[in-house]
Amino acid sequence: MDKEKAVSKLTELLAASEKLPHYSLHGDNSEFNKWHKDVEIALRHIFADDDGKHVQDFLGIKWTLSFFTSSTPDYQFENAHARGLNTAKALLKSYIDEVKEYWGGNNLSGMASESRLDALRNVLRRFHLVARQIRIRREGRPTLEINDEYDVQDLTHAILKLHFDDIRPEEYTPSYAGGSSRIDFLLDDSKIALEIKKTRQTLKDKQIGEELLIDVQRYKTHPSVQKLMCFVYDPEGLLINPSGLEKDLAEAGEQIETEIIISPKF
Predict the structure, then answer these.
(1) Is 0.85 surpassed by the pTM of this model?
(2) CB atoms within 10 A of CB 102
């Protein structure tokens, strides 16, 4: 979830807490129970990379008396619940301030987005080493041959599983110039679209550049994409001017953050 949505959701839950009916020990508290569950679910999505600390803090709020007897009046239970609600409100306000103060801009989601992006870069830059290594098997056992773009996608998908949970392959992009296409992979938690190309004799600098420029125009209107990562696998060194391709694509990504990684580089 990006920064703007996180603040909006937390603010919405805080406002909802002000409208909850008065808690009654013997009454219907279903609205409170729903609100409590909504907060828990939202915190799990918003702070997905904190090992559950924010959720644990919220679930650790005391909503009843620590000690009571059969003669303890109802109002003391209700007062304890009100104190718990005030604590929850204070936590939500603190979480809103945390997101506003310490999260980066809306270009990527979550506090660990930069580290995830670094992980993705590392996967793509070292892809060729993996592709070479898997060809070396004992006793001539069969392996995955990287012959075309689909092979590159399959191996990339497997490696991405080490770093990302929500990987959505082949999601449709909005139409552009009368046609539509599919995103190779959408890393939904990080709002990153990954487009993969493999060079061949009929797909070199000019053709790849043209395809990627069209992709930029499509992805900039996709509601779940805030960054486009383009991976060009060039094991035979067919690209004549990889630096020029990188420069052209970077200049085209004015309305969406765009990055291209070419591997290996000759």
Answers:
(1) no
(2) 9
